[in-house]
From TrEMBL, chains A, B, C, D:
GO terms for cellular component: cytoplasm; protein-DNA complex. Gene3D superfamilies: Metal-sensitive repressor, helix protomer. It holds the Pfam family Trns_repr_metal. One of its GO terms (molecular function) is metal ion binding. Belongs to the CsoR family. This is CopY family transcriptional regulator. Transmembrane segments: none annotated. It is found in: Cytoplasm. It comes from Leucobacter chromiiresistens. Keywords: Copper, Cytoplasm, DNA-binding, Metal-binding, Repressor, Transcription, Transcription regulation.
């Protein structure tokens, strides 16, 4: 994270903070699903049933990512955009790169 | 598209306009790839070779989508965010929904 | 495509041949959607509306890919697996590689 | 899992058993990444850095899924295909459905 970013962050709390508890709950559930997959592999369960559980964990993480990104756009990006300049340009560039990583 | 959006659009040109030619070039190439897939199916080509071509067309469209989204964030969303209020909230909501459609 | 593959192909028609018409219809629709995206870009339509259309074309191509892959597994891969040996191993390797390209 | 499947499974060990240790190692790493995301959220780290970690965990799970699927095709599906009949048809249908869940 660049220093330009740090300066912006000092002023605005991260967007996800309002629903930190909901995010943590989702993440604990995803962690439990990944542990469930391990148990299924250890107990030699059927491949397709394991794959179903892996897909559930992946979808849960995707939802977390979309929520974080939505919060990020609404808070960090929106306030940087309101200020404009180099910080805004960097935040927008960074958000686009994060979206590309999610899509690919 | 809501009227709230129309009002915002009237003021700012769409972000992608600066590289409309590059976008159109990419899209014509994707169209050619989809036509190529049709020809391969018609000529009974090998399934896996057809799948490779379908993947290429899908990746080309994904790149177009990421470019459009990046332009949209830099222009429409950034300028709406600078103004704030209902238009900004709606634009951000709309952008998140578009990102979710791309990811899923 | 390797010669090992050609030998196998000579014996079995490609799986997708039974619903070639349905596949071609889907592909023509996807081609029309990609042309629609070009027209929207040319006419300076709203970014989010264009993105919705790009997503529709991408989903259509994904469905074509899943159909081709299903046909491929049911025909080429199943008959190679029944024969076993090097052809079976190569077909399975090839199918997995195609699946990985679709997922990423 | 249908009874038809159970009958087939009794005869063949699941394909992933040969690299169970490697799979479990990958899964433990993914679990650690998900726990890392929780800690980052708890410590109010920067959204984009959290997103990068979420993407890493998602990609790790995707690799696990592709590995499981490859093993499944090589073992369960290949041996069912060699036998043919209802079991083969059901296994292939099931594999295609699992692939579709991964892609979407």
């Amino acid at each position: 994270m660049s220093e330009v970013m740090d300066a912006a962050d000092a002023e605005h709390a991260h967007g996800y903070i309002e629903h930190k508890d909901a995010l943590l709950k989702r993440l604990r559930r995803a962690e439990g699903q990944v542990r469930g997959v391990q148990r299924m592999v250890q107990e030699d369960e059927y491949c397709i049933d394991i794959l179903t559980q892996v897909s559930a964990a992946t979808k849960a993480l995707e939802r977390v990512a979309l929520e974080l990104l939505d919060d990020h756009l609404r808070h960090c990006v929106a306030s940087a955009a309101a200020e404009g300049g180099a910080v805004a340009a960097e935040k927008l560039h960074e958000a686009s790169a994060a979206i590309a990583r999610l899509v690919r």
